[in-house]
């Protein structure tokens, strides 16, 4: 028996679903699989799909709140959104709602190409925004090292969903626990290979989120993490 592991987010899950209605698929994504049309039900997904969904998309607005907590005197922040992502509109709506409640101006920067990254960081630096918040998207998560290097070069306080970003020198990250998601995805793939049907395996919801901060990056930016962030961090990089 074959099984497709679609671990690249909602866009990959939808592409796999459209490609075959017979080969079992295990997806790994953020966002709501029902709202995005991936499955009809979490408890009984039906068809040839099941998988794992994390809270990375739902917590996008929390990144803006953390960034504002870091720089409470700043009223302008930038957000990077991948316009090709199926979850971009819902995330942007949540971020705009958060910005309004905090009395902030949000500058939206849309990018879906690596050659646009440098110009994006240049724009954030020149507009003197308090920071750059990335929406949850595998496209950004898989390019954490590149984004961290640009954040350091342009002295931009930035925050993404992936712990790989602060581990590579960026300021901080907040998002779903990828290790837990990967583990559940692998377990489901194994069960299907042993004969179980995707339709009978409920979609797993990974509710754990993690906050990683980089003290060296903060010092270089002249930022001090408030005690509330230091005490709640799951990982502190020195």
Gross morphology is: elongated
Give the % helix.
25-40%
Number of domains: 2
CATH H-level homologous superfamily name of the largest domain: Response regulator
CATH architecture of the largest domain: 3-Layer(aba) Sandwich
Pfam families: ABC_sub_bind
InterPro entries: ABC_transpt-TYRBP-like
Organism: Afipia massiliensis
Protein name: Putative ABC transport system substrate-binding protein
Which features does this protein show?
2 domains, ABC_transpt-TYRBP-like, elongated, alpha/beta, 238 residues, 4-stranded parallel sheet, Putative ABC transport system substrate-binding protein, 7-stranded mixed sheet, Rossmann fold
Give the SSE map.
Layout: E1 4-6, H1 10-19, E2 25-30, E3 49-54, H2 60-70, E4 76-81, H3 88-102, E5 105-110, H4 117-126, E6 132-134, H5 138-141, H6 144-153, E7 158-160, H7 164-167, E8 172-176, H8 178-193, E9 204-206, E10 209-214, H9 215-221, H10 227-232, E11 235-237
Parallel strand pairs: 1-2, 2-3, 3-9, 4-5, 4-6, 6-7, 7-8, 10-11
Antiparallel strand pairs: 8-10
Helix pairs in contact: 2-3
């Amino acid at each position: 028996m074959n099984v497709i592991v679609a671990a690249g987010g909602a866009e990959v899950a939808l592409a796999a679903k459209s490609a075959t209605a017979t080969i079992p698929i295990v997806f790994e994504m953020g966002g709501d699989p029902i709202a995005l049309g991936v499955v009809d039900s979490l408890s009984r997904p039906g068809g040839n799909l099941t998988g794992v969904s994390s809270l990375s998309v739902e917590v996008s607005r929390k990144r803006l709140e953390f960034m504002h907590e870091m720089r409470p005197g700043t009223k302008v922040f930038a957000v990077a959104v991948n316009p090709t992502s199926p979850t971009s509109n819902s995330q942007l709506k949540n971020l705009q709602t958060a910005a309004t409640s905090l009395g902030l101006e949000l500058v939206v920067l849309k990018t879906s190409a690596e050659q646009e990254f440098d110009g994006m960081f240049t724009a954030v630096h020149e507009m003197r925004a308090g920071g750059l918040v990335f929406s949850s998207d595998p496209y950004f998560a898989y390019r954490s090292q590149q984004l961290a290097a640009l954040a350091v070069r342009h002295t931009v306080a930035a925050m993404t969903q992936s712990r790989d970003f602060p581990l590579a020198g960026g300021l901080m990250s907040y998002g779903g626990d990828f290790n837990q998601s990967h583990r559940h995805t692998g377990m489901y793939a194994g069960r299907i290979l042993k004969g179980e049907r995707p339709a009978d395996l409920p979609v797993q919801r990974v509710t754990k989120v993690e906050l990683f901060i980089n003290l060296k990056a903060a010092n270089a930016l002249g930022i001090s993490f408030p005690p509330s962030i230091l005490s709640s961090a799951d990982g502190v990089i020195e």
